[in-house]
Design a protein that fits this description.
This protein is mainly α. It is built from 9 helices and no strands.
Length: about 200
C-alpha cells in the first residue's frame, strides 16, 4: 500500500511561487526551495522531478492565477470601453507598487531570464505572453482607437502593449518611482483610452 503524500502539493507549489518570485530561477537554490516549501529533498524530487520541472509547474500555476486575472480584466465586457480596461490593467500595476509589491511579474521575470536559455521554459513563457497579446487585442477591438485600426495594425498595437506591460513590471521590480511608473503607464495606454472632448 502506497504511503500518503506528506504535504499538500498545491500549497507547496504556491510556496515555490514565492521563492522563485523573490529569488528568480537562477537565484533559487535547492535549500531555498526546500526551506520555503517546507518539504524534504526526497519529497521534492518525488513530487516534481527536479528544479526545472518544479519551475514549469510554478509557471503553470502563475498562468492559471495571475495571467488569467489580467486576461479576464482585459476581456471583461462589463466595461464596454476596451481602452478603459487597458488603462485599468496598467493602473493595477501602479497600485500594487503603492501597496509595497515590487516583485514584478513572474512571467516577465522568466521572460528576461531562463526563457532565453531554456527552450522548454521559453515555450511556456511565449504561450503566456501570447495570451496577454490576445487579450490586449480583444480590448483594442472595443476601444475607440483600436476600431480605427486595420487587423494587422491592431495586432501590432497589441504586441506593443504587451511589451509595455512587461517593461512596466520590470521597471517596478527595478525600483522605479511611482511618478515614473505612472508616466510610463499613461503613455502606454494613452492611444487606447477614449479621452472625453474638452469644452
Amino acid at each position: 500500500m502506497a504511503r500518503p503524500r506528506e504535504f499538500d502539493i498545491d500549497e507547496a507549489i504556491e510556496k515555490a511561487v514565492e521563492v522563485f518570485w523573490a529569488k528568480g530561477y537562477d537565484g533559487a537554490a535547492l535549500p531555498d526551495l526546500l526551506d520555503g516549501m517546507g518539504i524534504a529533498r526526497g519529497s521534492l524530487y518525488k513530487a516534481f522531478g527536479d528544479k526545472k520541472k518544479l519551475f514549469l509547474r510554478v509557471l503553470k500555476h502563475y498562468d492559471e492565477v495571475a495571467v488569467a486575472g489580467a486576461v479576464d480584466l482585459l476581456t471583461d465586457r462589463q466595461e464596454p470601453d476596451g481602452g478603459k480596461r487597458i488603462a485599468r490593467l496598467f493602473d493595477s500595476i501602479i497600485e500594487a507598487v503603492r501597496n509595497g509589491d515590487r516583485r514584478g511579474c513572474l512571467m516577465c521575470n522568466a521572460a528576461a531570464g531562463p526563457a532565453s536559455e531554456d527552450p522548454d521554459i521559453g515555450k511556456v513563457v511565449s504561450s503566456m505572453l501570447a495570451r496577454m497579446t490576445g487579450a490586449f487585442a480583444a480590448a483594442l477591438r472595443d476601444s475607440e482607437h483600436g476600431q480605427q485600426l486595420a487587423s494587422e495594425a491592431r495586432k501590432a498595437e497589441a504586441e506593443s502593449l504587451t511589451a509595455s506591460y512587461v517593461g512596466l513590471r520590470v521597471l517596478a521590480k527595478a525600483g522605479a518611482s511611482i511618478d515614473r511608473l505612472r508616466a510610463a503607464a499613461s503613455a502606454a495606454a494613452a492611444r487606447a483610452v477614449t479621452v472625453p472632448a474638452q469644452n
